[in-house]
Design a protein that fits this description.
Elements lengths: L9 E4 L2 E9 L4 E2 L17 E7 L1 E10 L11 E8 L4 E6 L4 H4 L4 E10 L5 E8 L8 E3 L1
Length: about 140
């Protein structure tokens, strides 16, 4: 099985992709996991514990990028802001350009997409799609 492209941000779970966030003792949930301070109450260190977050939420905003400064990033691609069911708001790549206009305010879920790195190796990256898929389509990174 292909390795994850960003294993500090997300992980595999039986239910599909999950984000590696955290929760403060005050109840505040955040992403990504960190220990330097809660945005709500200011607690830090061991008061902030890891919490896996389901990769599912509402697509709040989206845009299609037609030109990117990184020559290795093939354009066009779509990026969106997703309000996760658990509370945090994340910015992520979308699986389909059409989502940028057709899925606003609709539920999206994380899926694994196989990407090819500069050295030719394969890895899995997280994308958001309006419907979960069982297979990982191939895209260039």
């Amino acid at each position: 099985m292909d390795p994850l492209l960003k294993p500090t941000l997300y992980a595999r779970a039986d239910t599909g992709p999950v984000l590696l966030g955290g929760q403060c003792l005050c109840g505040y949930i955040f992403f990504p996991m960190q220990t330097f301070g809660c945005e709500r109450c200011g607690k830090s260190g061991n008061d902030l514990q890891p919490k896996t977050l389901r990769a599912r939420g509402i697509l709040v905003t989206a845009a299609v990028v037609h030109q990117h400064a990184d020559k290795q990033r093939t354009a066009p691609f779509a990026i969106g802001t997703v309000a996760l069911e658990a509370g945090p708001v994340v910015r992520a790549l979308l699986s389909d350009l059409a989502l940028a206009t057709k899925a606003l305010r609709k539920t999206v879920a994380g899926e694994w997409v196989q990407v090819t790195l500069e050295d030719g190796t394969k890895a899995l990256d997280l994308r958001f799609q309006s419907e979960a898929k069982d297979t990982a389509p191939q895209v260039e990174r």
